[in-house]
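Ticket #4471: structure output looks truncated?

Reporter: J.K.
Steps to reproduce: submitted the chain below (138 residues) through the standard prediction queue, then opened the result file.
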Amino acid sequence: MKNILLLFVSFCMLSFSVSHANEPQWKDWSEKTLAQAQQQDRFILIDLTAKWCQFCKKMEQTTYKDPAVIDELKKNYIAIKADEEEYPELASRFAKVGRPGTIILDSNGKVLLTKTGYIKPQWMLWMLQGTLAEYSDK
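Returned output as attached by the reporter:
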C-alpha cells in the first residue's frame, strides 16, 4: 500500500512539473518585475489580453505552448501576462494596441515593439530573436 501511495504522489508531482514546464514563467506587472528586468538586463515581453479575446486564448493554447518560444522567453525575456481589466494603467498606456497585444520593452522600460493580433509560434520566435538581435548588446 505504501508503494502504491508513493508511486501516486510521485506521478502527481511529475505531472505538475511537466504542465508548468510547457508555458512561459509569467510574472505580474509591477515595480519589482521592472527592477528585476533592469537588474538582469533582460527585455520584457508583455502579453496584453482580455477575457473576451478569442485570439488571446488561441495564442495561450498555441504560441505560448511552443517549446522554442518558451525557451527563448526563459533565456532572454521576462514575460508578463496582463489582463486589461486587472491592469487598467497598462490598457490605458497601450490603448492603441488591440488585443491580443504583444509589447516588447527593453530593460529600462522603453517600448521597442508593439504588435496587435494573433502571432503564430514561428513568427513569435522570429520576433523575439529579431528584437534581441536588433536592440541588444548580448
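Triage note (M.O.): checked the attachment and the full C-alpha cell line is present. The first helix runs from residue 2 to 21.
Status: closed, working as intended.
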